[in-house]
């Protein structure tokens, strides 16, 4: 509102409240008429060319509804290793980390108001494993192991009102064993309580909400939920030394602990809690917030007054037997699948057009989920799983976040355009939780001025052009914002009429919009920008036509004046490769190391956590640097050795993905290197230790392309993925030094410095990270080293996605982003089976790999800088993230490579660019000299011009390589030499004599 006049907020009269309840009851009754998939009937005006009529009536703004209709905004979920690398960002690039905290949690209109922490149990619960805060019943809780509790502590420095909630999925074995017997309630309570109090002791805040039940249960444990709440309220024991609570603050802690609220039951695809709360007065009194996952609709069974008909709507509105409103959360939902700046180049729209920032599983899809989950089930809080992707790509559910934070060594952060879409909700209202005196001014959602007709219940689809809008209003009725989502290819006109509101002397409405760029514009030109200012007509109505594939906020706030509306998100920065000195701390591209870790961390300084500074290992609960755990309890011991602690007494029994313990470290671009590590077996039960290289995807030790495993009896096994290549024995010992060297297609395994096996892979995986693994026994790892190999390029320099705007296409291509596979980079692919279809990749370097899951049927012609270099190149049958075709050995510099599909089918995922600038040591050019000798000196006049031109270019390149000095031509490595020689032989074999047809 533009006027500075203030008015006293009055209490709504009982008669008005009764009228509103009557009006709401009529609306609920009208919802008995359903459309298609159970949507409520649309507002009256729904002709194709008629404006959508929205009435924002001040009498519908329910200031006395302090729980159900207050707009809490957005939350983040930290769980199953998705936040692990954030602790490394904080240590290695603190400026970038704290910038992230401010962007997500800070400001007058925070994007995120809640951190939800799924307590770990060292087991894999989808993407990976979060550490258990208590691995045994008697171990003191250590919340510092969990990145989620730290994230919340840091977020509270810029948003003190931030809420924190916890729940479990699986549980530590010591709790699980008793729980299975039916006697585990006390142990469960102990685990929760000691974790909560340790969080308070370390970070100074009390958890706000607890879900005592299991995540995504299909049968809520109502009795335990009641038992747990009563246990919290009745608990008077805060003096036990285990809790670490100082005497002077125990009373304060007890009061805060007793105020913990209950959220239940985080169901997925079942809707039991709502009806149960309406049918059970005790349960209704215990549960403060009802939440469920991956569904936008309410339940619709029985008569309109039954507990199974719109139960969550009745909870939120207070239109229930108890006359009280409750919070209803979308307590776990998706982020935007893939990068919006890539997926805008899809051709999934009508006639092969792009869907822009829209389409299924897009930024606009997420916006429609917010709108529809409110319109259909009155959920006023949406929690992203995950909002921050801070784990290595290639694990389950990759590329499903709003912010990508996977390279802590470089500080690279990618803020997806979906954040602008979410800001269209959060920056045009005051979001959060109302205070006890109802004076915080949190904006209310307005059911009567909100509606969604888009199709679907999880992956929603707005291409039908149906209305989708949500209205938020100041409880004092002085301002309101209506958020409109149009994920169709047609414009949509809205007529928003304001009634019984106090808009002041200047009722001008601002129009803020986010959509994809128009032709010729920069990528973010149309992200969250002011596009118009409109005034009401004589009837108090504002009319505006919303553009296709856009989200628009119509607001009476004067956001253009405060400068926050047009604020841009930070730039991503450069995504440099992990290449450090011998200590693993500082970047060093000139030595022989790519990475090293002795797990002592003497090179590290103190790290800020919340408002305090702690020593490096203490700040992170002794978690090792840069490691993302897939299964197991990986922690640095007091002796400076990394141990995997999950033994037979703690053994995983209830993981989502059942694997032996393993953890991942490094850069997916690492290519030719030797990894080595000392392993030891302190467990009396023996055990197993494993070292793997070139891991691109998956969550088991067998997902490292080449891995070596050994036990204390000296028996070793060398694997390609999970297939045994060779076995053998060395002398039994308490420990060994394992190494695996990967150079080109040749892989060698070492035990104590001796080569025990060598494998020449005909279709090698060429790049990836390092993995460590063990059995379910305590196992030690020390002195990890990753070293470059003389004569070989150590890593690829950069990657282009198939949807990157720099890559151009001609001919028929299906460029898909919706429902993409998590194992495809950014969940997108471009596919063609049309002869003559082509794509062009520009880059600076010495070669490029064509990445994608393929059947090997595609045959290509390859043009380099406009000239045909390879005719009828065959592609390899490959799994996802592998190179179906590799082009190496080009001179260092800028190149443009055009690939033409001759026959077969080709799936494109990404392009890895090779650069020989980092090659060290001598490069043997003998293969090129041998090839020159083999082809001899054929005469140009004997062959067709086309085939001779290809041969001549290959011959010239080979001669240049052969004349190189002992250190090779700049940028030329061993793989490049092999390819130059191979192209020469192939070109010679493909020469066609002019007289061949005579």
Written overview of the protein:
The strands form twelve sheets. An eight-stranded parallel barrel has the order 4-5-6-7-8-9-10-11, surrounded by five helices. Strands 24, 28, 29, 31, 36, 37, 38 and 40 form an eight-stranded antiparallel β-sheet that branches. Helix 5 runs antiparallel to helix 6, helix 17 packs antiparallel against helix 18 and helix 18 packs antiparallel against helix 19. It is globular and about 95 Å long. The N terminus is likely disordered. The longest helix is centred in the N-terminal third of the chain and has 19 residues. With 998 residues, the protein is of the alpha+beta class. It has 19 helices and 54 strands. This is galactosylceramidase. InterPro entries: Aldolase_TIM (IPR013785), GH (IPR017853), GH59_C (IPR049162), GH59_cat (IPR049161), Glyco_hydro_59 (IPR001286). It holds the Pfam family Glyco_hydro_59. Keywords: Lipid degradation, Lipid metabolism, Sphingolipid metabolism. Belongs to the glycosyl hydrolase 59 family.
């Amino acid at each position: 509102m533009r006027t500075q006049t203030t008015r006293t907020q009055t209490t709504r009269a009982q008669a008005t409240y009764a009228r509103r309840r009557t009006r709401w009851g009529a609306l609920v009754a009208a919802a008995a008429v359903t459309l298609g998939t159970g949507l409520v009937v649309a507002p009256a005006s729904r002709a194709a060319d008629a404006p959508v009529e929205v009435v924002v009536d001040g009498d519908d703004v329910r200031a006395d509804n302090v729980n159900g209709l207050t707009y809490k905004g957005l939350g983040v979920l930290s769980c199953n290793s998705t936040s692990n690398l954030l602790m490394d960002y904080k240590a290695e690039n603190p400026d970038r980390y704290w910038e992230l905290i401010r962007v997500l949690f800070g400001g007058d209109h925070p994007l995120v108001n809640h951190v939800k922490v799924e307590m770990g149990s060292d087991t894999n619960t989808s993407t990976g494993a979060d550490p258990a805060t208590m691995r045994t019943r008697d171990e003191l809780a250590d919340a510092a192991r969990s990145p989620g509790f730290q994230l919340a502590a840091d977020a509270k420095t810029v948003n003190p009102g931030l809420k924190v909630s916890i729940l479990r999925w699986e549980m530590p074995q010591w709790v699980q064993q008793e729980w299975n017997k039916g006697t585990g309630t006390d142990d469960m309570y102990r685990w929760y309580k000691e974790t909560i109090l340790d969080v308070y002791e370390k970070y100074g805040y009390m958890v706000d909400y607890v879900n005592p039940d299991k995540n995504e249960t299909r049968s809520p444990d109502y009795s335990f939920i009641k038992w747990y709440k009563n246990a919290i309220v009745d608990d008077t024991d805060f003096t036990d030394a285990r809790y670490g609570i100082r005497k002077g603050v125990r009373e304060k802690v007890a009061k805060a602990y007793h105020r913990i609220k209950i959220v239940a039951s985080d169901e997925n695809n079942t809707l039991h809690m709502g009806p149960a709360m309406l049918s059970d007065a005790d349960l209704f009194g215990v549960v403060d917030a009802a939440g469920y996952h991956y569904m936008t609709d309410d339940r619709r069974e029985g008569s309109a007054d039954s507990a199974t008909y719109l139960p969550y709507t009745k909870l939120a509105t207070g239109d229930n037997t108890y006359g009280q409103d409750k919070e209803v959360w979308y307590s776990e939902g998706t982020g935007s699948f893939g990068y919006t700046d890539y997926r805008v180049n899809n051709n999934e729209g009508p006639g092969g057009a792009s869907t822009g920032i829209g389409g299924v599983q897009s930024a606009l899809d997420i916006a429609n989920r917010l709108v529809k989950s409110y319109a259909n089930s009155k959920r006023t809080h949406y929690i992203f799983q995950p909002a921050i992707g801070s784990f290595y790509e290639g694990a389950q559910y990759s590329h499903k976040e709003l912010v990508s934070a996977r390279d802590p060594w470089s500080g690279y952060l990618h803020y997806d355009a979906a954040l602008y879409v979410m800001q269209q909700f959060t920056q045009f209202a005051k979001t959060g939780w109302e205070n006890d005196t109802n004076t915080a001014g949190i904006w209310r959602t307005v059911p009567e001025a909100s509606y969604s007709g888009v199709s679907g219940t999880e992956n929603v689809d707005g291409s039908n052009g149906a209305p989708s809008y949500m209205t938020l209003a100041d409880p004092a009725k002085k301002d309101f914002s209506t958020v409109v989502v149009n994920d169709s290819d047609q414009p949509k006109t809205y007529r928003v009429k304001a009634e019984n509101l106090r808009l002041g002397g200047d009722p001008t409405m601002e129009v803020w919009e986010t959509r994809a760029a128009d032709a010729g514009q920069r990528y973010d030109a149309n992200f969250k920008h002011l596009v118009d200012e409109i005034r009401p007509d004589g009837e108090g109505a504002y009319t505006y036509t919303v553009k296709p594939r856009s989200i628009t906020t119509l607001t009476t706030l004067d956001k253009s004046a405060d400068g926050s509306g047009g604020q841009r998100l930070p730039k991503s920065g450069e995504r440099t490769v992990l290449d450090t000195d011998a200590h693993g701390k500082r970047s060093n591209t000139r030595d022989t190391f790519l990475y090293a870790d002795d797990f002592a961390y003497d090179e590290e300084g103190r790290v800020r956590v919340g408002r305090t500074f702690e020593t490096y290992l203490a700040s992170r609960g002794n978690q090792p640097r840069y490691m993302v755990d897939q299964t197991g309890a990986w922690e640095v011991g007091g002796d400076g050795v990394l141990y995997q602690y999950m033994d037979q007494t703690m053994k995983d029994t209830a993981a989502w993905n059942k694997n032996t313990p393993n953890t991942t470290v490094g850069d997916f671009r690492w290519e030719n290197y030797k990894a080595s590590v000392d392993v030891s077996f302190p467990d009396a039960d023996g055990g197993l230790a494993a070292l793997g290289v070139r891991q691109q995807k998956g969550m088991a030790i067998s997902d490292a392309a080449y891995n070596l495993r050994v036990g204390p009896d000296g028996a070793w096994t060398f694997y390609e993925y999970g297939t045994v290549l060779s076995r053998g024995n060395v002398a039994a010992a308490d420990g060994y030094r394992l190494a695996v060297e990967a150079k080109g297609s040749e892989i060698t395994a070492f035990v104590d410095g001796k080569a025990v096996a060598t494998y020449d892979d005909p279709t090698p995986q060429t790049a990836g990270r390092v993995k460590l693994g063990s059995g379910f026994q305590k196992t030690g790892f020390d002195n990890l080293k990753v070293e470059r190999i003389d004569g070989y390029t150590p890593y690829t320099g950069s990657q282009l996605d198939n949807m990157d705007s720099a890559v151009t296409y001609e001919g028929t291509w299906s460029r898909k982003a919706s429902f993409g596979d998590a194992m495809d980079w950014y969940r997108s692919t471009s596919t063609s089976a049309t002869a003559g279809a082509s794509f062009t990749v520009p880059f600076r370097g010495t070669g490029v790999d064509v990445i994608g899951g393929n059947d090997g049927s595609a045959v290509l012609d390859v043009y380099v800088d406009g000239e045909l270099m390879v005719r009828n190149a065959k592609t390899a049958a490959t799994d996802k993230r592998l190179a179906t075709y590799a082009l190496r050995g080009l001179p260092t510099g800028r190149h443009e490579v055009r690939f033409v599909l001759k026959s077969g089918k080709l799936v494109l995922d990404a392009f890895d660019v090779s650069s020989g600038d980092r090659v060290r040591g001598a490069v043997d050019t003998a293969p090129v000299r041998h090839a020159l000798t083999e082809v001899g000196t054929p005469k140009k006049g004997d062959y067709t011009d086309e085939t001779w031109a290809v041969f001549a270019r290959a011959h010239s390149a080979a001669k240049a390589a052969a004349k190189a000095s002992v250190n090779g031509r700049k940028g030329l490595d061993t793989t490049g030499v092999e390819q130059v020689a191979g192209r020469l032989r192939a070109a010679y074999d493909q020469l066609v004599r002019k007289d061949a047809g005579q």
